[in-house]
Structures are given as structure tokens and as C-alpha cells.
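sanity check this:
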Amino acid sequence: MKIVSIVGARPQFVKAAVLSRELRKEHTEILVHTGQHYDSNMSDVFFQEMEIPVPDYNLNIGSGNHGEQTGAMLKGIEEILLIEKPDWCLVYGDTNSTLAGALAAVKLHIKVAHVEAGLRSFNRRMPEEINRVLTDHISDLLLCPTQTAVDNLRNEGITQGVHLVGDVMYEALMWAVEKSKTHSTILTDLNLTPKNYLLATVHRAENTDDTEHLGNILSAFNQIQETLIWPVHPRTRKKLEEMHWQPGKHIQLIDPLGYLDMVQLEENTRMILTDSGGIQKEAYWLQVPCITLRDETEWVETVQSGWNTLTGTNPDKILSAINLKSNLNSFNIRLQEKPSLLITNLLTKS
């Protein structure tokens, strides 16, 4: 069986790492990197650290407006699919790379498998939400990480090809936690003591492209009374420069990190502030309280469990949540089985 896997952004690299290892035991995988995340800190280091095979194709698309970027990916992926003629096109998550891969494949009558299907924020202003919904409605195999995701699909009338497989990111995270113990020196490099700092990430368009939202987040960050480590996404850093923002002395702005360094920071922080979907899950699995700088989340289970607090970008809510002791409960948002093995078996049988 031949599978073309489409990746383009950091969360997809993480998911592809564990699934590629399983797929390649018995099948042929052609890995396509769209180049959506294209600099070394956002891309190359992930492939090295996660032991992901070198991509067979790199489209080097780079950044751009949504239509421009998705269109360029669609053209490039279609050309590859015509050459490779795979049995399956495998896409991950909710990026423009996801949608472009699914569209290119379905128009060529190539079966589409969507890893992380069924997630919904119910906010159609989010580009990621549009990508998720469209990809799910044209996929043949919908690989859901949670029962909530299965329920979301059922509510939209999608029941064929839907499977609850658990979360491949959990596999990747546990692998990275062990490896980071011997391959990361980030705490020493930044002179940090475990549980004596906060960790932040901000990258979503709804925050970075909205001056009011980003300004509110920056105001809250400057009022925090403890050390804040912030690996800054290139797009966000450009916005900070345009706004001439001056961070407080307690804030350390650093370049984007590899996955092992990031996992070390997540595991040892007192609390995470983020607008990332993946980091919300990782915080939960690492038993680290999380503040999500959005008004909704695809990972509603993390909120129900008390580990995740939605604040939006309101500075008062952010600061209040930092000081609030949450009621933390256990809540299982993954299956016990090995998701990568279940997915491989489903691809083989379908």
C-alpha cells in the first residue's frame, strides 16, 4: 500500500513522527512538506529531533494570504499525486496544508484519511475551523481523537468511515518527554527553576492579526508578577515590532524552539498561557494548568476537567486566571490503545 502524507506545520510534524514510524514497517509512505512552516526553528529542527524521515517532496510554499497559500499548495500537491498515484492521501489537523491535501486528493478520486477529525470550536471566523469542517466532509476515513469529536461528526450527519482511535499527539509527547530528559538543556540555558516561571505562546490569526486582541494580551503579560518565557512565532514577532511594544523585565522573548526543548519547558512550568490547540492537550497530559487566550476551544474536555481556563484576551480575566487555584479533576481524552497502530490497521483494511 502506498500513502502520501501531507505536512506543513509544527503540530503536523509531531503527529507524523509517530505515525510514519508505524506506517513504514509494512507500507510505502511518501512524505510531502508544503513548506507552510519554513524556517529552521519552525521546521527543520522538528524533523531532526522527532526522527521524521526526510520529506520526499518540499513545496517551499512559505507564508502568504490564505487563498494564495492554499492555491499554491493545491497545485503542488496535485502534481505529486498524479506522479505517485497513492492508495491514500493522509492529512493532519486543520491547517491550509490539510485542506489543500484533501482537496487535491478527492478531485483525483484518491481516498482521504483525516487524522484529528471531528474537532470543532464552532467559530467560523477561524480559518482553522473552515479547514476542519471542509476536510471532514470530503474524507473517507475520519480518525477521531475523542468521543466528542465523533459526536460532532454525527451531529453534522457524518457516520461513515468514522473511528475513535485516540490521539497520536499523546504518543509523540510521551516519546518526547523521555528523550528530552537527555537531549534538552533549555532550563539551564535560560537559568530557570522548575515551577518558578510561566510559559506563553501566541500565534493564531485571531490574536496576532487583531491589534486590539494582541494589545490586550501584551498588557496582561506586562502586568504579570513572575518570570514569563515566550518563544515568539515569526509572524507574532513582526507584529510586536510594528506595535513598538516594550516587554517588562520579567518577560524573556526567545526564538521558536525545537519540540524537545518546548516539552521540557511545558513539563516544568507552573502554568501555560497559549492560543495553541496542541499545547492545551499537552498541558493536560503533563498535568500543568493552562490558560487559553481564546473564547472557545476544540478541546472542551480540558476545560470540563478544570485543567484549562478560557479567558479570551481580556487582561483582567487573564490575570485573574493566573492567580486562581482551579479545581483540577482527571478526565481521559485519549484511548489506551496505541493510536498509530490502530490508524495503520484501518488504512490497511479500508
In short: The first strand starts at residue 2 and ends at 7. The mean pLDDT is 92. The chain has 16 helices and 13 strands.
